[in-house]
Design a protein that fits this description.
Blueprint (H helix, E strand, L loop, with lengths): L1 H100 L5 E6 L3 H15 L8 E6 L3 H8 L5 E5 L14 H20 L4 E6 L2 E3 L3 H14 L3 E5 L16 E4 L7 E4 H7 L8 H5 L2 H4 L3 E5 L4 E3 L11 H5 L21 H14 L1 E2 L5 H6 L5 E4 L3 H11 L5 E2 L2 E2 L7 E4 L5 E5 L3 H5 L5
Helix pairs in contact: 2-3
C-alpha cells in the first residue's frame, strides 16, 4: 500500500512539471498576444491619427478650392466687366471715327424769323427723332433778322448750328401793295441755301419752316428717297407733304407718288439742282416760282400719301391762309415705316408711268352729276374725268380737296390726274382731258 502511494507521488512530479511548463507557455503566449494587441492598437491609433490629419488636410484643401473657385468667379466677373468696358470704349471710339468720316445724307435747316414759341415746338419735334441720326442729318437754324428771343431760343440748344441772315437794305416791291415779308423770305432762302451748299458743302439740304412738326419716320423717308433724287434727274425735289393729306383723304402710309406740282413744306433738293436755281432765284414768292413750268422744266416731285410734316402755323406771313380749311386737319404719319427694306424703284421715271397708268386704268370710270354719291357707292377705285379747270374746281369742291392750279397744273397732280382716298381705302382719280393719252391708256 505504501509503495503504491510512493509511486503515485512520483507520477505527480512529472505532471506538475508538465503543468508548470504549460502555464509558462500560456503566459508567454498571452504576453506575446498582449504585445501584438498593444502593437495593433497603437497601429490603429496611428492610422486614426493619420486619417484625421489627412481629413484635416483634405478639408483645408477643399476650403482652398472653394476660395479659389470664388476668386476665379470674381476674376471672371471683373474680366467680363473690363471686356464690356473695352468693347464699349472701342465701339464709342469707332463710332466717333465713323461720325467723323460719315458723309451726311442731308443738312436739315429750319427757316425762322420772329416766332420763338413756334421755333421751340419745331426744334423739340425734330430732336425727338434726329438725335440718333445727327451725323447723317446735321441740324441748322437759320434766322432772318435780329429778333433776340428767336436767337436766344436757337442758341439754347447745343445739338444744332445757328446761322443769322441780316439784310438791312430797304425792300423794293415790284407791285404796289405787296407784302414785304414775301421778299424777305425769298432773300433769306437764297442766302441760307447758298451757305449750306457752297460754304458748308452739303450735297443735299432738307428745308423746314419754324411752324412744323415731323413724323417718326421723317429721316428714314428722306434717307430712302435720297437715292432716287441722285439717280433720277427727272426728279427735282423730294417733299414730305401732300396737299390733299387730310385725314379723310389718306389711308396708306407706305404709298409714295410722283407729282408735277411742287408741294413744298418740308422738302429736299440736291446741290446740282441748286446750282441751276441759285443764279435765277426770284425776289419773292419763291414757292410759286418753282411751280412754273419754265423753272421745273418737266421735272417732277416725290411726295407721300400720308404727310411726314404737320404745319401748325395758323399765324404767320400767309395770315393763316387755308389753315382752317386745309392744314388743320392734315394727317401726320404716326407709325414707323421700315423704308430701308422697301423697294422704291417703281418711282423711277422709266417704271412709274406704267405703274400709275395701271392704277388709273383699273379704276372704274364714272360720269355725270352726283359723282361724290356715285363714288361712295362703288367698291374699289374710281376715276372721274374733268374737261377743264372750271370743272375740276367744281368736282374738287364737292369732295373738299384743294381746287388751286398753278401754271395749268392742279395741286398734287401727275399728268393732270389728282389722286386721293375718299373715306375708305378706295382711290379717287380726277382725270384731265389729256391724261389718258399721256398715260398711254386707251379711252373707254
Amino acid at each position: 500500500m505504501a509503495r503504491n502511494f510512493c509511486d503515485f507521488r512520483f507520477l505527480l512530479i512529472p505532471a506538475a512539471v508538465v503543468f508548470i511548463y504549460i502555464q509558462m507557455r500560456l503566459f508567454t503566449t498571452q504576453s506575446e498576444y498582449a504585445d501584438h494587441l498593444a502593437a495593433a492598437v497603437e497601429a490603429e491609433n496611428h492610422c486614426t491619427s493619420q486619417m484625421r490629419l489627412l481629413i484635416d488636410q483634405i478639408s483645408m484643401q477643399q476650403g482652398r478650392i472653394v476660395a479659389l473657385e470664388e476668386e476665379k468667379k470674381r476674376l471672371d466677373e471683373e474680366c467680363g466687366q473690363l471686356r464690356t468696358l473695352v468693347q464699349d470704349l472701342e465701339r464709342k471710339g469707332v463710332q466717333r471715327l465713323i461720325d467723323k468720316l460719315q458723309v451726311p445724307i442731308a443738312a436739315v435747316v429750319v427757316m425762322a424769323c420772329n416766332r420763338p414759341d413756334y421755333l421751340e415746338r419745331t426744334i423739340e419735334s425734330i430732336l425727338k427723332y434726329q438725335i440718333s441720326v445727327a451725323s447723317k442729318f446735321p441740324l441748322f437754324i437759320s434766322q432772318d433778322g435780329s429778333n433776340e428771343r428767336v436767337k436766344s431760343k436757337a442758341l439754347s440748344y447745343n445739338q444744332l448750328t445757328y446761322m443769322q441772315h441780316l439784310d438791312l437794305r430797304p425792300v423794293q416791291t415790284e407791285r404796289p401793295g405787296e407784302m414785304i415779308a414775301y421778299y424777305k423770305i425769298s432773300s433769306h432762302y437764297k442766302w441760307a441755301l447758298d451757305e449750306l451748299f457752297y460754304k458748308h458743302n452739303f450735297s443735299r439740304v432738307i428745308i423746314l419752316e419754324d411752324d412744323m412738326e415731323i413724323a417718326p419716320d421723317f429721316f428714314d423717308y428722306f434717307e430712302a428717297t435720297a437715292t432716287l433724287l441722285d439717280d433720277d434727274k427727272t426728279i427735282m425735289a423730294v417733299s414730305s407733304w401732300n396737299d390733299n393729306g387730310q385725314k379723310q383723304f389718306v389711308h396708306d402710309p407706305e404709298v409714295i407718288y410722283r407729282s408735277d406740282f411742287f408741294p413744298g413744306l418740308g422738302w429736299m433738293l440736291s446741290k446740282s439742282t441748286w446750282d441751276e436755281l441759285s443764279p435765277k432765284w426770284p425776289k419773292a414768292y419763291w414757292d410759286d416760282w418753282l411751280r412754273l413750268k419754265q423753272n421745273h422744266q418737266g421735272r417732277q416731285f416725290i411726295r407721300p400719301e400720308v404727310c411726314r410734316t404737320y404745319n401748325f402755323g395758323e399765324h404767320g406771313s400767309s395770315m393763316g391762309q387755308f389753315f382752317k380749311q386745309y392744314l388743320e386737319s392734315i394727317k401726320l404719319n404716326d407709325v414707323h415705316i421700315d423704308w430701308k427694306s422697301m423697294d422704291l424703284s417703281y418711282l423711277m421715271e422709266d417704271k412709274y408711268l406704267r405703274h400709275f397708268a395701271d392704277m388709273v386704268s383699273n379704276a372704274k370710270p364714272i360720269h355725270g352729276t352726283d359723282v361724290v354719291l356715285k363714288a361712295y357707292n362703288i367698291d374699289g377705285d374710281v376715276r372721274i374725268p374733268y374737261k377743264d379747270q372750271d370743272e375740276f374746281e367744281h368736282i374738287a369742291r364737292q369732295f373738299g380737296i384743294f381746287e388751286e392750279w398753278k401754271d395749268g397744273i392742279p395741286r398734287a397732280s401727275y399728268k393732270g390726274v389728282v389722286v386721293f382716298r375718299y373715306q375708305t381705302p378706295r382711290r379717287i382719280f380726277l382725270v384731265g382731258p389729256d391724261s389718258l393719252r399721256q398715260l398711254g391708256i386707251k379711252s373707254a
